[in-house]
Design a protein that fits this description.
It contains 14 helices and 28 strands. By secondary structure, the chain is an alpha+beta fold. The chain folds into 2 domains: 321 residues, Nucleotidyltransferase, domain 5 (2-Layer Sandwich); 131 residues, Sandwich (Substrate Binding Domain Of DNAk, Chain A, domain 1), CATH 2.60.34.
Length: 560
């Protein structure tokens, strides 16, 4: 089942339109049927929203919840008890049971995760990728169940998937692979602000013929992105992006929880004794009360009944909550202003979207800075999913010129190893290929001087005047390739000392880097002289990553 409340037109449930389409052009209608159902999937930090492409309408998919209601979103939750797992609404239903640990914000965990990363739950450690794949598989089953009356047996679910604009390459790769493994046919990957710009253009620019430049302010549950996008008829050019990958509505929930615990007089020692399930329930209570705030709200009432009944009910002044939140909001505004300043005079509208932006203080602060240019999305929590569904349904109508949001490169030795330099393989701002087009490819060719090539990849937000990486720098992956042909079959290159090698200097080595429409990067290294090669998808594959902890297990000090 799906909801038509998020579209400008009502959903037609009759098959008359399909019959007329088949009579008019039976071959085209048959191809459309075989192509599968088109969806836009906004995999969110706290909520996953799915929009359906249905004959020019883009309603939201509804999911059955344990209380019998049908919300138009799916909880991005995972419940763990020993070897048992529950996902989505089934995980939501376990939040009151202390025997289960409910993990929220798994999307946010992917920022620091690799294929081997473990999630530390205190009493056990579980692979992050296994949880992610379990979640996407459960979502796939729920989507098929919700679409059952509209799907033919075996009909594919074809999706365009949204990712944060500043998601690193590994986060993109892990996300796409998890959805593919679940059974979705991934048509393409779009940055979330770009998807929101498609929704904006589709809904508000039907009668406009002149170009317009908008600045998309996308504050989600776990990330913030700002993208400057020029809308020229049906072509969307992403001019530039800035963002904060670790700031979102989740942080507002934690701040409200801190204030509520302080108001209740709860010590840090007492907080440390809370179970993971109790922390989850507290953060959910704070999220629900936060989302209920409106411009005239004066107090937030937090009920500790499901956490510790002895703590009772407390009230936090909204002004005090907004004061605590304001520095985080100012961080997002500073990034937005920095982007606008680099392109002075180009921004005609500031389009606000993302679940985190629903907090009244956000729109208030933006209007103080940007005045009448601020336009709030009518579908704050679903604009991205709708834009993704439009792209899935009309890939030739809305052409998107996307750009890479970070520099991606590798450390190399120069002057025969006397110094290290940064080789920016893909520069920040380079145009990415549209979904379905061949990847962007570059090559490097040389004669090596060492027996083993030790490649250390990284991403960075900025570069200094001397070309070195600065800003947000993420050491990304390490791979090793045997330059010396005698080491081709060596299974443990990491244990081989790197040294000068006359036998290697006669080899011709070529590196090819492919960057797809979603920003995922793969390297293929070939020894042309001896005829062997290896390919590597880049992203934390080479070493064991340190275990990470879910947000509800990271105890915080009192706010004051």
């Amino acid at each position: 089942m799906w909801s038509g409340t998020e579209t400008s037109n009502h959903l037609l449930v009759s098959d008359i339109a399909g019959i007329l389409s088949f009579l008019a052009d039976p071959a085209a209608a048959l191809v459309a049927k075989l192509a599968g159902m088109k969806l836009g999937v906004d995999f969110g930090t706290s909520r996953t929203v799915v929009a359906v492409a249905d004959r020019g309408n883009f309603p939201l998919l509804c999911f059955e919840s344990p209380d019998g209601t049908a919300p138009d979103w799916y909880p991005s939750l995972i419940a763990i008890r020993g070897a048992d797992r529950r996902y989505g609404w089934e995980a939501w239903d376990r939040q009151g049971d202390d025997s289960w640990t409910v993990v929220r914000s798994i999307k946010r965990l992917l920022e620091d995760a690799g294929p081997k990363t473990l999630l530390d739950l205190g009493d056990q450690q579980v692979p992050v990728t296994g949880l992610l794949q379990g979640f996407t598989a459960a979502l796939y089953r729920s989507v098929r169940e919700s679409c059952e009356s509209h799907l033919k047996p075996g009909e594919a679910l074809e999706i365009v998937l949204g990712v944060p604009a500043h998601a690193n390459s590994n986060q993109r790769f892990l996300t796409v692979e998890a959805f593919r493994a679940a059974g979705f046919r991934v048509l393409g990957v779009l940055n979330e602000p770009s998807a929101a710009s498609i929704e904006f253009g589709h809904r508000l620019r039907q009668s406009k013929s002149t170009p317009e430049t908008i600045l998309v302010y996308d504050l989600g549950g776990g990330t913030f992105d700002a993208s400057l996008v020029t809308l020229d008829e049906n072509v969307h050019h992403v001019i530039a992006s800035e963002g904060i990958p670790s700031l979102g509505g989740d942080d507002f929930d934690h701040l409200l929880a801190d204030l509520a615990l302080e108001a209740a007089g709860v010590s840090l020692a007492a907080r440390d004794e809370l179970t993971a399930a109790a922390w989850f329930r507290l953060l959910e209570e704070c999220r629900i009360k936060k989302e209920a705030l409106h411009p005239n709200s004066r107090r937030v009432t937090i009920d500790f009944e499901q956490v510790n009944p002895a703590w009772g009910i407390v009230q936090v002044p909204v002004a005090e909550f907004y004061e605590a939140v304001r520095p985080l909001v100012e961080e997002t505004i500073a990034a937005t202003e920095e982007l606008a300043a680099k392109h002075a005079g180009e921004c005609e509208a500031l389009y606000i979207t993302g679940g985190g932006s629903a907090l009244p203080v956000v729109a208030r602060a933006l209007r103080e800075r940007f005045g009448r240019r601020v336009r709030r999305s009518a579908y704050t929590r679903s604009a991205t999913a709708i834009g993704l569904a439009i792209e899935a349904d009309e890939p030739e109508t809305y052409r998107l010129s996307e750009r890479l949001s970070r520099f991606f490169g590798v450390w190399r030795e120069a002057d025969f190893g006397s110094r290290i330099v940064f080789d920016p393989l893909f520069p920040k701002g380079v145009n990415l290929p549209p979904p379905g087009d061949p990847p962007l490819s570059i090559r490097r060719a040389y004669a090596p001087v060492h027996n083993v090539g030790h490649f250390r990849f990284l991403e960075c937000s900025h570069r200094a005047s001397d070309g070195s990486p600065t800003g947000e720098v993420m050491l990304w992956d390490e791979i090793r390739f045997p330059f010396d042909p005698s080491l081709e079959a060596e299974p443990a290159l990491a244990e081989v000392d790197v040294k000068y090698c006359p036998a290697a200097s006669g080899q011709h080595i070529e590196e090819r880097y492919d960057c797809d429409s979603g920003g995922s990067i793969k390297v293929t290294i070939v020894n042309r002289s001896d005829g062997y090669s290896r390919s590597y998808p880049l992203g934390h594959w080479s070493e064991e990553a340190k275990p990470i902890r879910p947000a509800q297990l990271r105890k915080k000090a009192p706010a004051r």
